Amino acid sequence: MVYLKNKKIWGVLLVSLGLITGIGAFEQAEEPKNGTQQMNIGAAKTVAAKSPAVRLEQYNGNFFTINKPSGWNITTAGVGPTLAVWMKDPQEPARQAFFFGAVGPFYLSHQQKAIDQNYMASGGYPIQWVDMPVVAPQTASNFLTKWNSVANSRIAQGFMAERPIFKDLTIISTQPIPNQFGGSSELIRAIFVQNGKTVEGLFTATIYQNVPFMNGPGGHQGYALMFSGVTAPKNEFSDIQPILVSSLGSFNLSEQYVQSYISSSREAFAGVMRAGQTLRETSDIITKGWNQRQKIHDILSEKRSDATLGKERVYDPATGQVYEFPNGWYQKYDINRNKYNKPGLQPIPDNDHITWTSPTQNGPSQVYIQ
Question: How many CA atoms lie within 13 A of 212 on its CB side?
């Protein structure tokens, strides 16, 4: 989120635009034009989920285009490698898709943060990122767990008036993914809470060290390159995520814009021309990762969701129906089960993927003492 002056680092960060970035001033974007645009994977699609259908239409941001979900708000911020695009459903803010080209700088060691704090306390110049968190170890999943601290920093508040926030975030799984920039890149599956409901998301980022440790102020800084994510309420995520991923994959910079920056900094922007191709490749990685996810992670996601919301599930072995109750309900039920209209309920077996991922019914309205 801070602009970089070092030409070599600019080169690395600006090449990252080939995945998810561009140039744009902070603005609340205008409403999209009417009509739809053919997507990279075919014509505009509708996904029938457990939520209103999502239809993509072309949004023209003057120097970029993206196939935005119809009716969603879009906000852009940043210039150069810090361009951010955030699309959000005003009817359900948990439905969102975003990318931040380069986020930082943040600290890569506690020692460096202590050096900067001591330097300022001794009368040194202000260090504008001193309230940024420490991301150590230097992994994308660790960065994601620190995201709320990044989003609440002074730099972030000056960058974008409102930022995505992931309350009570829990990592479900991580998967290393390739990148052309060095550092650690991961595809991350996680859940968090928004407005009292569990939200699921897929995220990618590359953690890049742009200043090494020098045993003095201003060192050991890192950036998160290509930080992107798609999220939705948990009960609809598997249905809606493919179209959100394809939306991010449709991002394209204008040829005129690309040429203007290649001419002004040919070396630094040598990789920008691959922007569309690289982003499509990343979308394919996300899709493949989701389709090949392990069943154990689906079950873990459900269990973590229950723990976060203070709920528990039981099922009826005779019918397969799953019921949801507040934590602790089953213990009381078990010693008095013969008094209930459904006396045969049992906890879901740990490895029963089908039952763990089945829809739930409101337990208290369906199970009661006769």
Answer: 1
